[in-house]
Specification:
The complex is a heterodimer of chains A (183) and B (235). Chain A contains 6 helices and 7 strands. By secondary structure, chain A is an alpha/beta fold. In chain A, strands 2-1-3-5-7 form a 5-stranded parallel sheet, sandwiched between helices. In chain A, strands 4-6 form a two-stranded antiparallel ribbon. Chain B folds into 2 domains: 73 residues, Roll (Ubiquitin-like (UB roll)); 122 residues, Alpha-Beta Plaits. In chain B, the strands form 3 sheets. A 5-stranded mixed sheet of chain B has the order 2-1-5-3-4, with helices on both faces. The longest helix of chain B has 17 residues. The chains are: A alpha/beta (183), B alpha+beta (235).
Chain lengths: 183, 235
């Protein structure tokens, strides 16, 4: 039997969830035995080359590129897992959700401490090559169907490990109290 | 001595003083009924509904119900646990609860209930409604993004001459907690810390004191909320 195929991505996240995946320490050697990686920053495969069994999503959707990648994952993965608070509820990027987008951009490019007085022409990035910001940051399950959720900021390495092993082996997933946290 | 009454919770024989509210009566018998707005020694409000139990077949809030002889209480059935989980999820989506950035994380009762009910994701869409932060007071600030309107602060935090420092402004959907800046400025550091500890979430916070306890040593890092009650009585 061929190994299950895993793909991962970081949307509007900080890569902390991927770092936490690496925090499984030497079990990463067991993981390589258990699964094969496809599109993922772990192996730097940029595009899907085949249908995957498990897609792991870090980060929510803050721009059009995030939505595009997330939909691509839904199309190419049988199971999608939201990994971490940002994928589940928008996380820290979603703190902008209560501030009008114009105000956010003005703070970032015109009035912020590092830009004030240094952008006399008032230029804001606006090129068709750049992804467009969404009106707010969306949790992944409000954009596509998500099958499983692993909370945490970042999710504890043991939680990610338990989940991957459960998904691959078909055993029931262990959720000990210490590993299910929202921070 | 007041009279003792006998009652049953999930079939277990219990005994407590007549007239004691069911949350405290259950606690004396080593049974945890989850609460959020309830505060021991303060008049019950019954506003959060987390302590919903079935008494003689009907839903009632345990914090507002005095225990009486022969009561048959259902507390830990699957449908009641699910109902409570739904309430917790509703609170999570109706406020702006960014746990990773919150000073109260790890010691927050709402978060602890989320852990206890193994809430992995709320089943409702997030509201992301704008809420105001009031940081005008010298000792405390209120972050209404996190407020669950339990009214613990309104009911229990008073000045020595009995004046309320916190009050509810507006009604229904517009209700929010307001702080009397003048009275709040007269609070001692101990009173301000007590106010912060009274708030079940990270809505009332003492200034200049964030992230005090390291991760791993906070109140609910290792053990679920209520486990101290469940471990207090060994039979």
């Amino acid at each position: 039997m061929s190994k299950p195929i895993v793909a991962t991505t970081s949307l509007a996240g900080c890569f902390g969830c991927h770092m936490s995946l690496l925090d499984i320490d030497e079990r990463i050697l067991d993981l390589i035995e258990l699964v094969e990686f496809n599109k993922s920053p772990v192996d730097d495969i940029k595009e899907f080359t085949k249908m995957c069994d498990i897609g792991i999503i870090e980060g929510g959707c803050c721009n059009s590129e995030n939505v595009h990648v997330l939909k691509d994952f839904r199309k190419n993965c049988k199971i999608l897992v939201s990994l971490g608070e940002c994928a589940i509820m928008g996380g820290l990027p979603a703190m902008r959700n209560n501030i009008p987008i114009e105000e956010c951009l003005q703070e970032a490019y015109l009035n912020g401490p590092s830009t004030k007085g240094h952008n006399p022409d008032g230029i804001m990035p606006n090129d068709e090559e750049l992804p467009i910001l969404l009106n707010k940051v969306y949790p992944c399950h409000e954009v596509v169907k998500i099958d499983y959720y692993l909370p945490g900021c970042p999710p504890r390495a043991d939680l990610i490990w338990n989940a991957l092993v459960a998904l691959v082996t078909g055993d029931e997933m262990k959720l000990p109290y210490e590993v299910v946290k929202f921070d | 001595m007041s009279d003792k009454v006998k009652f049953k919770i999930d079939g277990k024989e219990c005994e407590a003083d007549q007239g004691l509210n069911l949350v405290e009566a259950a606690k004396q018998n080593g049974i945890y009924i989850p609460t959020l707005c309830h505060l021991e020694g303060v008049k019950a409000a019954g506003s959060c509904r987390i302590c919903n139990v079935k008494i003689n077949g009907r839903f009632m809030t345990a914090c507002t119900t005095p225990v009486s002889d022969g009561m048959e209480v259902e507390n830990s059935t699957e449908d009641i646990k699910e109902l409570r989980k739904i309430i917790v999820e509703t609170l999570f989506v109706s406020g702006n609860h960014y746990c990773p950035a919150c000073e109260k994380s790890g010691s927050c009762e709402l978060q602890a209930l989320g852990y206890r009910f193994t809430m992995l994701v709320p089943r409702f869409p997030y509201a992301f409604e704008p809420k105001e932060v009031d940081a005008k007071s010298t000792k405390l600030y209120i972050d209404r993004n996190r407020c669950v309107l339990c009214k613990r602060c309104v009911r229990s935090i008073k000045t020595k001459d009995g004046k309320s420092i916190f009050a509810v402004k507006g009604r229904g959907h517009n209700a929010m907690i307001n702080i009397d800046h003048e009275l709040a400025a007269q609070m001692t550091d101990e009173e301000a810390t007590a106010a912060m500890d009274t708030c079940p979430v990270g809505s009332i916070l003492k200034k200049e004191r964030g992230y005090f306890t390291p991760i791993g040593r906070r109140k609910y890092d290792k053990k679920p909320i209520g486990s101290d009650i469940e471990e207090s009585v060994t039979i």
